[in-house]
# Entry
Amino acid sequence: MKLEPEKCCESGCIPCERDREGEAPFDLENYVNGKFVSHSNEDWLNVLEPATGYRFARVPLSGTDDVDAAVSAARGAQAEWGGLSFGERADWLDKIADALEKKYEEIAALESRDTGKPIALARAVDAYRSVANFRFFAGLIREKSAKPEEHFEMDDATNIVVSNPVGVAALITPWNLPLYLLSWKVAPAIGMGNTVVCKPSELTPMTANLLMETLHEIGLPAGVVNLIHGDGAGAGSPLTSHANVDLVSFTGGTATGAKVAEAAAPQFKKLSLELGGKNASIIFDDCDLEKTVEGVVRASFLNSGQVCLCGSRILIQSGIYDEFVKKFVDAVEGMKIGDPSEDSTELGAIISADHLEKVESYVTLAKEEGGTTLTGGKPCIPNEFEHGYWLAPTVIEGLAPDSRCSTEEIFGPVVTLHKFETEDDAVAIANGTRYGLAGSVWVGDLDKGRRVAENIHTGMVWVNTWLHRDLRVPFGGVKDSGVGREGGRWSLGFFSEAMNICLKHD
Ligand code: NAD
# Structure
């Protein structure tokens, strides 16, 4: 595949040949065994700026041979890397954090351009967390070096439990938080002595490339971190089914997660799946209304709703329904959409023409399902961005809680509003979806907040806050939102094999 101009025209964007004046697109390369290398075929995919539709890079569409080379490099490097002490590997993680920190602005600018998200968000969330992830796991692994094994005494024996590396890990990530999510996997994986092959989203490959450049600059041993660019069919699928891959950590959509699970299962690979969500924000009559409106607007529209944790269903108790809805819609209409590179912009573009089409199809479906759009629902395109992918933040009411729009993941700037009477009603609506990732409860009475939280079938619930992250706590979902937990010691457990050695006393 070369430039695919027809496909781009069909998708409604400008022809891919239209690059920014004076700016040739940057051709990315894979990173294998400590070297930047070309892929083994002639297939490329254009990387487009979501805000403008301009092409600014080309990403290799790697294939099985490229995956084989990367896995083989990772396998070759594993014994030596796994033989380092926890302290030595923690030092490497700190070096990576230091080097990335110097590129803070570059990370934010690339991420904003690649994803269409506002630069302020890319700084505060993407750049910040990418550095913090390496720093955090350096600290946790250094703590482990102080106590690398556990002992369990019996009357006649001592049990020693050690944490061995699993081996070669495949790390597959989506487009919404590119380096944030990749670093969340790379840091604990290599920290525990594994070597890795990364496969970032083909839509947002730029900061994964920046991470490889950074590792190269600081001289991380060859083969410890490898990267293969490409799409799911060409690169992701051969990676997850590769006989020499021992572990797969996947973050992405639920349908893809099912394929990954199917590929990994016959070889009993260790598997973590962080998948989609349809999270509820539950608002009780006794909440602090001003703070709740502010918090729920953020939970609904951060990154244009393209965060797996976003609260896309808002359940409001009847006593404050009208007042909340008025204030909420006013606040949403006051958000500043526009140029992602401007500091004051609050909402940017949607990731791609295809994804915009999917999100818009739900807005159409909502009408068919009897919903009323209170605001948004149509493109809201800043002047100079007419070839980008834009949708105004959209608020829909009047849908049945079990309608498709209210239960399926939309993953865009679209929320549905639902009125409830009692605590039990709210819990029933919240649990009425196949997803079970996260949720938030907004309430005056914290005992009620905790009680409701405990009854919601998800991996995480915030009370009177949202996305308030402590990196030590477990992260992950239930039902169609995934399998397993990452975060803090859960990541260390997932990226290692606990081994028991039982020494019988004389
Ligand atoms: P996606 O599933 O389309 O792609 C994710 C990654 O998987 C990409 O790198 C893609 O190339 C790769 N891939 C695709 N097919 C594959 C296959 N058959 N085998 C192996 N890899 C394959 O997801 P997306 O559109 O990039 O991301 C959006 C989704 O990610 C949403 O559903 C969102 O909820 C979810 N997400 C979940 C979390 C979480 O922590 N639970 C975080 C962020 C995003």
Observations:
- The pocket of nicotinamide-adenine-dinucleotide is lined by residues 172-176, 199, 201-202, 231-232, 236-237, 240, 251-253, 256, 259-260, 274-277, 308, 409, 411, 437, 477, 482 (CB under 6 Å).
- The chain has a mean pLDDT of 95.
